[in-house]
Predict the 3D structure of the following.
Amino acid sequence: MQISSLFSPNKTVLSFEVFPPKKTSSIDTIYATLDELYDLHPDFISVTYGAGGNAGDTATCEIASIIKNKYGILPLAHLTCVNYTKDEIDLILDHLKEKGIDNILALRGDCNPEVEPKMHFSYANELVEYIKNKGGFHLSGACYPEGHIDSVNLVEDVLNLKKKVDAGVGHLVSQLFFDNGYFYSFRERANIAGIHVPIEAGIMPVVNKKQIERMVTLCGASLPSKFTKMLQRFEHSPEALRDAGIAYAIDQIVDLITHGVDGIHLYTMNNPYIARKITESISGLLNVD
Ligand code: FAD
């Protein structure tokens, strides 16, 4: 089933993101997380992919297969390209096909200073075009409400996004943001640029101050003063910060649904407690006439 077909006017799609455990030997730990996420009835679950350039790394494919075949939930497998050759991408596509996984979040990936780029793919739109030409997969893509950290400006960024959509992306998932105003402005820019595929808002509940500082350094998301005050007030009290982070995420989501967002993509950080708290608070808002 194609992810883009999940979207309809009176429904807000709810999806989760998980990542493969750091050690391949501990892949079994993902079952405990998935057992709990399954209970929350997400529309689909996405699985991240390492940008490291190891085409033999099959953890994403394995976990996506578990999501589909053990839990009966639609999986979305992330796939990065900047550190892979076309032959390596073909190998990964073959693995996905063997497991019956046909939805891919096609990404450029970050350039890893320790890995020589393979130069077969420079941008995500090239991966989208490559997979589209081979056939057999439905494609999603990433988007950036505040602009991608490498982008020259917001106009260039949205025009580049249009190339990715024109190449065959049928659904977009946004990078995390903490100020909904950026998402609404981005949606307008996308619309003006002629991008009319469903756009899910990526929401990351803050779990601890260090985690959020690391994320923000990597992706450049702005922190509104309401958010930084919350971090400062509760930074030495992990449970209070977790609860405040959950409340902040719920507040963001209620506002997004009120403004007609197509879907909410929750970056669960493999933390089912947080996913549960948030899902239980918003589940009554997802299907409203
Ligand atoms: P692109 O769409 O290629 O864009 C990257 C930059 O290049 C942008 O500045 C864009 O404006 C510019 N650009 C795009 N196309 C062109 C063009 N044709 N010509 C000139 N400039 C162009 N990383 C991982 O390693 N693993 C993951 O699983 C993962 N999952 C992610 C999921 C989501 C929802 C998001 C938002 C990000 C994810 N990332 C992941 C991070 C992502 O790999 C990085 O943000 C990466 O730097 C950009 O990837 P992209 O696919 O958005 O790139």
Summary: Residues 159 and 210 are 34 Å apart (CA to CA). The chain has a mean pLDDT of 94.
